[in-house]
């Protein structure tokens, strides 16, 4: 009979259909209960979980602000040239990380020796660890750790400017997102005797390593304030006796005729968007910079430098005539 052969390799067939051990067969364990289904906000892959985590981060940030400052993460500058440039600019660093087995050259040796002279810790880590810290392998075997910038408060800036030998001169930046522009403005404010810079907390460049380098180290000596509400901060300056002057083409005043010898806040918007509507409405006056008619606008940092230079000249003029 077919299937009952005694020869080697013969297979005995069965007329039974389906699983031999009841419903589920060998996969019976798959039918066991797994408990209650987790809530959507507890499933890491679910959109509700991401919303919950974002809300927790916002709440944590609000709590930190109530305590006097938003907690920020350390920044790691990578690449041999950027690290050496930061050290030349005397950016405050806390540690230099060097990957094991990195090929030494003049830049690496200079970075290590400079950190050793300044008391900055030099730490050797594996290349895999530096890859993990930087998120990529483009670090060239070196990384400089920079702490978060210590921002001043608006009240402190007003108080410090009140004790200065010259009337307060502040630059407020609106819609400036390039840290190189921020660094250049900080450098110009310091060069022309200004007393500080105000930037918005949101949608604005911060004092990162790029801004530090562009400022050529002047960020270490010039107060920079992060305003949670720019309009409110400008009104604080107004209450302290400052004139708020916004820079924009077609203003009712020009740089040639404006008196910059009184306490003043110069508001500079981005080259493309300019100032936001509410900030513009808060300004006491709008001033333009005379230019050749075929030039549409100036870069934000250049515009700030031009106005600061003219106001500094006006402030020197009375003493020069004596």
Q: Which strand order does the major sheet show?
A: 7-6-5-10-8-11-9
| Principal-axis shape | globular
**CA-based gyration radius:** 31 Å
What fraction of the residues are assigned to beta strands by DSSP?
Answer: 15-25%
Structural class based on helices, strands and sheet pairing:
alpha/beta
Terminal-residue CA separation: 129 Å
Largest sheet: 7 strands, parallel
Protein name: 23S rRNA (Guanosine(2251)-2'-O)-methyltransferase RlmB
Domain RNA 2-O ribose methyltransferase substrate binding: 76-152
Organism: Corynebacterium zhongnanshanii
Family: Belongs to the class IV-like SAM-binding methyltransferase superfamily. RNA methyltransferase TrmH family.
Kindly list the characteristics that best describe this protein.
23S rRNA (Guanosine(2251)-2'-O)-methyltransferase RlmB, alpha/beta, 322 residues, 11 strands
Quick structural overview:
By secondary structure, the chain is of the alpha/beta class.
Detailed description of the structure:
By secondary structure, this protein is an alpha/beta fold. The protein is built from ten helices and eleven strands. Strands 7-6-5-10-8-11-9 form a seven-stranded parallel sheet, sandwiched between helices. A four-stranded mixed sheet has the order 1-4-2-3. About 3% of the residues have low confidence.
Draw up the topology in text.
Blueprint: H1 47-66, E1 75-78, H2 80-88, E2 95-99, H3 106-118, E3 121-125, H4 127-134, E4 142-146, H5 154-162, E5 169-174, H6 179-191, E6 196-200, H7 209-214, E7 224-227, H8 230-239, E8 243-247, E9 253-254, E10 264-269, H9 277-282, E11 285-288, H10 300-321
Parallel strand pairs: 2-3, 5-6, 5-10, 6-7, 8-10, 8-11, 9-11
Antiparallel strand pairs: 1-4, 2-4
């Amino acid at each position: 009979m077919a299937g009952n052969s005694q020869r080697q390799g013969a297979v005995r067939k069965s007329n039974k259909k389906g699983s031999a051990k009841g419903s589920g067969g060998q996969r019976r364990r798959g039918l066991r209960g797994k408990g209650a289904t987790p809530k959507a906000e507890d499933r890491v892959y679910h959109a509700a979980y991401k919303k919950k985590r974002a809300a927790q981060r916002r709440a944590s940030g609000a709590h930190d602000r109530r305590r006097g400052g938003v907690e920020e993460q350390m920044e790691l500058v990578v690449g041999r040239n950027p690290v050496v440039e930061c050290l030349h600019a005397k950016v405050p660093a806390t540690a230099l990380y060097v990957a094991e087995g990195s090929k030494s050259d003049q830049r690496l040796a200079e970075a290590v020796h400079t950190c050793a002279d300044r008391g900055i810790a030099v730490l050797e880590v594996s290349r895999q660890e530096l890859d993990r810290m930087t998120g990529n392998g483009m670090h060239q075997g070196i990384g400089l750790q920079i702490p978060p910038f210590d921002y001043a408060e608006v009240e402190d800036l007003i108080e410090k400017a009140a004790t200065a030998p010259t009337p307060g001169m502040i630059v407020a930046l609106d819609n400036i997102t390039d840290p190189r522009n921020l660094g250049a403005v900080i450098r110009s404010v310091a060069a022309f005797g200004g007393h500080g810079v105000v930037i918005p907390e949101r949608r604005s460049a911060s004092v990162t390593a790029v801004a530090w380098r562009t400022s050529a180290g002047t960020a270490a000596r010039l107060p920079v304030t992060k305003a949670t509400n720019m309009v409110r901060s400008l009104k604080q300056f107004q209450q302290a006796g400052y004139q708020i002057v916004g820079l924009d083409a077609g203003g009712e005043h020009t740089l040639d005729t404006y008196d910059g010898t009184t306490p003043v806040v110069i508001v500079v918007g981005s080259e493309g968007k300019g100032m936001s509507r509410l900030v513009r409405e808060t300004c006491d006056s709008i001033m333009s910079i005379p230019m050749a008619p075929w030039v549409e606008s100036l870069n934000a940092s250049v515009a700030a430098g031009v106005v600061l230079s003219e106001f500094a000249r006006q402030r020197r003029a009375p003493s020069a005539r004596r």
